[in-house]
Amino acid sequence: MQKPESQWKHINLLILTLAACVLGAFVIRAKLETEPEWRLLSPSKENLFVQHPVTWLMGQCYAHQAVLDSLAGAAASLRQTAQEMAQRMGGEAEIVPMAVHALSSRHANADNTGWTADIGYAGRTANGRFSQQRPSLLTYGRFMRYADDATSGSTTFDAHATLAILRAIAAQPHALVDSIAVAPFAAWRLHEVIRTLPDAERARLADLLREEEGRAGSMRITFRPAGQERVFESVPLLDHPAAETLAPAASTAPTFSGNEKDLRQ
């Protein structure tokens, strides 16, 4: 008769074996490429990473190679900018993270075109650091909410860092940005900081941005192949009929209107 310790050892070994098999099955499933021009995003590479490992394991991180090149190029641009600023100002380089909440699933359909990327907003915690700088097992992106401030340990929306992400992506030549869908709470804060950009870039980014309910956790960036005509016609934020009345006055501290309070209920 086996001792209880030996039995527990065998049970633990069996559990670990089953867990390894399940994980291996998910990895194999995630790497099955069913569309010839699509590729799988790496789970994590420096400041470009999948927000939650489950998204990658479920095979929801596929896109055309041009989209992946644009995301990688934007992340590299953010790293270079941070390093150059650190050299000029001194201190440690603060690199803006790019958290990918979802791309496309393996099978192409109306919702999975291979030309979209859901990218997380940049947020900060109470200590002033970015809220996520690597894949997280604790927070699932689509349920993330942004509070008025970070005094309670919640995440504060950083409009300047979020704009830096969008500028880096929009500047990439691999795939052209067709539109950027953001939640109402983010639209007017981005509208505020976009006003500080040079005229040409300000008009271009404002023309790409549009509001969309249900985007509280991430931005939906829609790309198109280089050389293809734009198919989406948006109402530029700076020319929006409600822009002057809804845009908050400039301030150093992030403030929120009633729209996002509804989103966080």
Structure description:
The chain has 265 residues and is of the alpha+beta class. The chain has one domain (31-263): Muramoyl-pentapeptide Carboxypeptidase, domain 2 (2-Layer Sandwich), CATH 3.30.1380. Helix content is 38%, strand content 17%. It has helices at residues 4-30, 53-57, 65-89, 159-170, 184-194, 199-208, 243-246, 258-263, and strands at residues 38-40, 44-45, 48-50, 62-64, 98-102, 116-120, 123-124, 156-157, 175-182, 209-211, 218-225. The protein has a seven-stranded mixed beta sheet with strand order 2-3-5-6-11-9-10. Strands 1-4 form a two-stranded antiparallel ribbon. Helix 3 (65-89) crosses helix 4 (159-170) and helix 4 crosses helix 5 (184-194). The radius of gyration is 21 Å and the shape is globular. Residues 148-153 and 238-265 have low confidence and may be disordered.
Q: What percentage of amino acids are in beta strands? A: 15-25%
Residue-averaged pLDDT: 78
What is the β-strand count?
Answer: 11
Q: What summary fits the major beta sheet?
A: 7 strands, mixed
Say what the CATH topology is.
Muramoyl-pentapeptide Carboxypeptidase, domain 2
* Low-confidence region ranges: 148-153, 238-265
End-to-end Cα distance: 58 Å
Helical fraction equals 25-40%
Along the chain, the helix and strand elements come as HEEEHEHEEEEHEHHEEHH
Protein name: Lipoprotein
Organism: Desulfovibrio psychrotolerans
